[in-house]
Amino acid sequence: YRYYGENSCVLHEGRGQCIGAPGWRRLLRFTSSSINSGKRDIHLGNVSDPVYLYHGIFEWDNCHKHFHFQHYGKFSFGQTPGHKVGFCLQTTWRYFNTEHTYLSTPYDTCAYQGISVGWGDDYVAGL
User: Where is the signal peptide (predicted)?
Assistant: First the structure.
């Protein structure tokens, strides 16, 4: 369970459709992992690049005071639709130990986003 007050940012963004109104809500919270098992980096780059802003890839959230990555994922449970608005797509965990998996990554902040080959982004339930 989680309590959402009148001024909660959640009520003023896309998730408001799931929460509905202020008060105590029972939520299904889970961790998701996006692993880059391909041959090239997933490169988004600088979130303030006008190309991303013009095409709706990132959207500034005045309540949270950071950019949201608009196309992270769509989830469903039974007949109850839901979605996940990620605020950051970054390399957080090294999943593979191969010659093609770098030991470090340039995508380690929310200002310069992407997922390196062999790495993943873990979006934990508590975020």
Answer: none
For residue 69, the cross-strand partners are 58, 86
Task: Residue 22: name the closest of 10, 36, 30 by CA.
Answer: 10
Are the CB atoms for 26 and 19 separated by under 8 Å? no
Q: How far is CA 82 from the centre of its chain?
A: 14
Number of neighbours of residue 78 by Cβ within 10 angstroms: 5
Instruction: Identify each DSSP E strand in 1-127 by its residue range.
Output: 2-4, 23-25, 32-35, 42-46, 58-61, 66-77, 80-86, 93-94, 112-115, 119-123
pTM: 0.71
pLDDT means per 10 residues, the chain with 127 residues, are 86 66 84 90 83 72 78 68 67 91 90 92 78
